[in-house]
């Protein structure tokens, strides 16, 4: 009679070691996982380097980097809300029309009726929240698909914009309102030919980012979740830090720190923490990943879906204020095609078509890729039709890459 010993249990120390390399020793699997987690950052650096070369360095000039921030900030704000909507398995086609409507309401109050500028801002945000609640009601409590509800909203709120503005443009806003999107903070800490305050804020942000991602990595290792290899992790952090500090140096040598960039940074930090570290954030991922399982687990799906669209409406209101401030007025055609840019930013940044996957930071990187491509092609004198073709191909390739990764992941299990 032979006795068989049970297989030895994995020690606690060995689990983190395996998780450190993604929970597997297969090099091909490691490469695929690392590419999915860090490929967007590599792509961003490559695209920046390419257009910097094609534009003879003009792309990375201090003035042009400042212009990129000012010109595309409202798209990045929309991308924050859109990636949350997409993670939950929905879509919002109305955000461009909501940007136009909120800007129109603000313009009527401030320009036509003479209210203080902050009344216009508050009214725009309130209208955005009301629109989000309207969409959330039909999606969450009536059960209509978000695609249909927001498609109807795109038409409805564009029509309301025309009625609010009476088919005319309104301008100009007072100087205080214009500073929301065109103002700068500089000279607070001095500097010899540059703004030291901008560099200080950037360094603080890089340190905070490094601490945050390191803590996230440790938490994933504790729960034996797959993570990228440590050398690649360090490389990513150093690369992000270098890009941010270079970006800040260029801003410091131009006009200083844009106010709109501060607004955007606050939103990114707040929503990044919300999606990663709160119950509501985890419920969003649960709904998008497996709706039936989320329901059986006690997630109040209707309530979460409702607040997802309220949040999207709020951020559309913020984008409406920024865009109307940037353009110094409100136009009936404002916000045209903004929803497609926001959706593209989310998908290029790693959001999955089926939901359950995506990050706020990834959406920001995806939005910056779109911004750099648009700005670079404009500097090169490429016509608008060709720019649309290139953007469409990039979006198609990003979604194809996501599908390819999912198939490979399924094949290696």
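-> sequence recovered:
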């Amino acid at each position: 009679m032979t006795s068989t010993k049970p297989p030895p249990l994995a020690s606690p120390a060995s689990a983190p070691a395996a998780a450190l390399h993604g929970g597997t020793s297969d090099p091909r699997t490691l490469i695929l996982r690392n590419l999915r987690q860090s490929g967007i950052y590599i792509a961003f650096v490559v695209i920046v380097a390419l257009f910097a070369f094609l534009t003879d360095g003009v792309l990375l000039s201090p003035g042009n980097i400042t212009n990129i921030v000012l010109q595309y900030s409202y798209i990045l704000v929309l991308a924050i809300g859109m990636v949350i909507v997409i993670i939950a398995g929905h879509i919002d086609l109305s955000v461009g029309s909501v940007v136009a409507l909120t800007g129109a309401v603000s313009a009527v109050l401030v320009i036509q009726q003479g209210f203080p500028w902050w009344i216009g801002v508050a009214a725009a945000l309130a209208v955005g929240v009301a629109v989000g609640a309207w969409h959330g009601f039909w999606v969450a409590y009536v059960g209509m698909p978000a695609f249909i509800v927001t498609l109807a909203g795109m038409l409805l709120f564009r029509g309301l914009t025309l009625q609010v503005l009476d088919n005319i443009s309104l301008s100009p806003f007072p100087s205080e309102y214009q500073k929301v999107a065109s103002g700068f903070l500089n000279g607070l800490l001095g500097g010899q030919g540059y703004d030291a305050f901008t560099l200080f804020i950037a360094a603080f942000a890089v340190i905070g980012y490094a601490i945050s991602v390191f803590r996230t990595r440790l938490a994933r290792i504790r729960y034996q979740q797959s993570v990228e290899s440590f050398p690649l992790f360090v490389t990513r952090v150093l690369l992000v830090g270098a890009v941010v500090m270079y970006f800040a140096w260029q801003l410091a040598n131009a006009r200083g720190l844009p106010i709109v960039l501060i607004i955007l940074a606050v939103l990114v930090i707040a929503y990044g923490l919300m999606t990663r570290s709160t119950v509501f954030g985890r419920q969003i991922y649960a709904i998008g990943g497996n709706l039936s399982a989320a329901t059986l687990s006690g997630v109040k799906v209707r309530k979460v879906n409702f607040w997802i669209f309220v949040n999207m409406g709020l951020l559309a209101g913020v984008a409406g204020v920024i865009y109307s401030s940037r353009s110094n007025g409100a136009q009936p055609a404002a916000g045209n095609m903004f929803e497609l840019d926001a959706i593209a930013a989310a998908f290029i940044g790693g959001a999955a078509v089926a939901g359950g996957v995506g990050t706020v930071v990834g959406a920001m990187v995806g939005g910056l890729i779109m911004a750099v491509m648009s700005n670079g092609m404009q500097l090169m004198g490429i016509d608008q039709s060709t720019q649309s073709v290139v953007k469409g191909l990039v979006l198609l390739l990003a979604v194809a890459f996501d599908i390819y990764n999912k198939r490979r992941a399924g094949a290696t299990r």
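Confidence is low (pLDDT under 50) at residues 1-25.
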